[in-house]
Amino acid sequence: MSVTALPAHAQDAPPAETTYDFEDDLVTGDLVRPDGEQLIVRRRGRRASLIQIREHFIPEMLKSVEDL
Asked: In this structure, what are the phi and psi dihedrals at residue 38, rounded to the nearest 5 degrees?
């Protein structure tokens, strides 16, 4: 009994670009909006910040420690 190995045939390389062509479909629909009144909200006014940056924080901390 003799066994002979035959070379396998490789598949051809797939094409670099595949193009699909679909037929045109008509899409119909309605614009959906909520029922009721439309509210218009004003923008917030510009206000000064209520947060004040404490420039002398460390000296104030040292002074409070000295008072203890």
From this structure: -100, 125
pLDDT in tens, 7-34: 667 778 777 888 888 788 887 888 887 7
Q: What residue type is 67 in one-letter code? A: D
Q: Which of 60, 64, 44 is closest to 52 using CA atoms?
A: 60
Residue 46 to residue 49: CA distance in whole angstroms: 9
Q: Which two tokens stand for residue 33?
A: 């909006």
Q: Which of 30, 57, 16 is nearest to 65 (CA)?
A: 57
Q: Note the Cα 25 to chain centre separation in Å.
A: 31
- The H or E element containing residue 64 is helix 57-66
